[in-house]
């Protein structure tokens, strides 16, 4: 009788917790990028953030949305993908604007120096998605080029999915590719840190939020009985996040030894 008397409190409380967990799933994935976005805007320097993170998340979430048409999963996971795509486009827009502005300022300084010395300055060519140059893939000069690439990829894969939606093998493979791509989210940042032997410019807050968010997401997948692909994705992401945090600790406490030759301090900053 006592348990039945508490139903009026427990049922709404359970519903409230369920709504809170769903909201955390939808919007929690974008929270780690808020400090990185603010840092880039404040410093006008996007060198510490790998835009290939945006590429990985765009591909993963587009594939996840297409997977939903073949095998329905919980709506919060679908909305999470849509929100993440918009967030990555905003990050790309900011990074492109900052990079182009910095290149323009550097070019102006070169022109001014060349005018004083009466020298000729070579202007870097504009890079475009429609050039189809693999050497400059995802390094274009305009945000519109990134949008064109995303639209072209979505249209191509969407058409293939439409033709193969009745194939269970294709749908399951699509889901596996979606979560495997998302599991590789931190790899571009991990590689960049290793190549430069530094985490300068990378927001530690962002990585800490990655780790906590991925741990929560993995627990959500397991408790809600999401497809197995999602749980595997979450576990791999947590491992990569921990590896990046390990890099930050290692480079902070054991910085790499400087090169034996002497260089000007301004030239030592990682590109």
Automatic annotation (TrEMBL):
* Gene this protein is translated from: SLC66A2
Q: How does it sit in the membrane?
A: Multi-pass membrane protein
Subcellular location(s) of the protein? Membrane
- Output the Gene Ontology cellular-component terms: cytosol; endosome; membrane; trans-Golgi network
For this UniProt record, the keywords arranged alphabetically read as follows: Membrane, Repeat, Transmembrane, Transmembrane helix
- What parts of the sequence cross the membrane? 16-37, 49-71, 77-95, 143-163
Q: What is this protein called?
A: Solute carrier family 66 member 2
Q: Which GO terms describe its biological process?
A: phospholipid translocation; retrograde transport, endosome to Golgi
**One Pfam family from the UniProt entry?**
PQ-loop
């Amino acid at each position: 009788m006592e348990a039945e008397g508490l139903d009026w409190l427990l049922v709404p409380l359970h519903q409230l917790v369920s709504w809170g967990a769903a909201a955390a799933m939808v919007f929690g994935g974008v929270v780690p990028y808020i400090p990185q976005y603010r840092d880039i805007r404040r410093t006008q320097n996007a060198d510490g953030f790998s835009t290939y993170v945006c590429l990985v998340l765009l591909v993963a979430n587009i594939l996840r949305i297409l997977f939903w048409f073949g095998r329905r999963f919980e709506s919060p996971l679908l909305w999470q993908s849509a929100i993440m795509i918009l967030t990555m486009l905003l990050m790309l827009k900011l990074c492109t604007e900052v990079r182009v502005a910095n290149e323009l300022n550097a070019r102006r300084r070169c022109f001014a120096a060349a005018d004083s010395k009466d020298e000729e300055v070579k202007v870097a060519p504009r890079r475009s998605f429609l050039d189809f140059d693999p050497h400059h893939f995802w390094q274009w000069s305009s945000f519109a080029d990134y949008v064109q690439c995303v639209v072209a990829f979505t249209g191509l894969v969407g058409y293939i999915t439409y033709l193969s939606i009745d194939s269970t093998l294709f749908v399951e493979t699509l889901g596996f590719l979606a979560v495997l791509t998302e599991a590789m989210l931190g790899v571009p940042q991990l590689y960049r840190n290793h190549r430069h032997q530094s985490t300068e410019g990378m927001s530690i807050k962002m990585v800490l939020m990655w780790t906590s968010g991925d741990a929560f997401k993995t627990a959500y997948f397991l408790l809600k009985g999401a497809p197995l692909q999602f749980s595997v994705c979450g576990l791999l992401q947590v491992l990569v996040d921990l590896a990046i945090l390990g890099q930050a600790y290692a480079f902070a406490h054991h910085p790499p030894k400087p090169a034996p030759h002497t260089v000007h301090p301004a030239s030592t900053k990682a590109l």
